[in-house]
Amino acid sequence: MKTVFHSAASRGYADHGWLKTSHTFSFASYRNPARDHFGVLRVLNDDWIAGGTGFGKHPHDNMEIVTIPLSGALEHQDSMGNQEVLRMGEVQAMSAGTGLVHSEYNASKTEPCSLLQIWIFPERRDVEPRYEQRFYDLAALDQEWHAVVNPLGQGDAMPIHQQAWFSLTRMKAGTTRSYATKRSGNGVYFFVIEGSALIAGQALEVRDGIALSEAPEASVEALTSCFILAIDMPLMLPAVA
């Protein structure tokens, strides 16, 4: 097993007033050659957006984008005609493919919202853009690693164009839950959203992350009550990323 630990404090950070954002991987003005990506995981941004503000219309192409709201509500509009509000308990999966334009605004004029936005290199380029959002089963998170996103055509989670699985779990202090890699050769990136945990022998606090490779299975022990994201994906970049 190979591991790379990323403490929350080691992330890139920017404070734009209306937006406070931390970057696990190189993004915008944060450039770290050692942290350009982990396998096909390109971006993991931890955003706080003030009330009445947000990201105006901007383009994306050839990227799989997953958004997980953590508090408040996010209003989404795009060039495919979608106009939705995304809340805690939901996940959004969007394939940018041949290209789309969208905007993301805090749905409240007064209360802040926070979210994780994650970009994955697709397994093939120039697919037809698509958009979906779903509530996930909160009760299931207390019992297991609950997949909310998975490869196109597999299972009942939202599909993306990559051999990647996004799973969430919640654990009580003192409990242990193993995670089995979904596909031979994949790596797993664990991100502690809330609480603290011991993952593959490494202690992680809130917003810490750890990248695992050559690990068919990993043990996760909750040091406190915790909420954890696991991103299971190929380690090799597509031929044209």
Task: Describe the protein in words.
By secondary structure, this protein is mostly beta strands. It has a single domain (2-234), classed as Jelly Rolls. The chain has one helix spanning 138-141, and strands spanning 2-6, 12-15, 19-23, 41-49, 54-60, 64-71, 73-78, 83-87, 90-95, 100-106, 113-120, 130-135, 146-151, 158-160, 165-171, 176-180, 186-194, 197-199, 202-204, 209-213, 217-222, 226-234. The chain has a seven-stranded mixed β-sheet, with no helix packed on it. A hairpin with a 4-residue loop joins β7 (73-78) and β8 (83-87). The protein is globular and about 45 Å long. It starts with a strand and ends in a 7-residue tail after the last strand. 38% of the residues are buried.
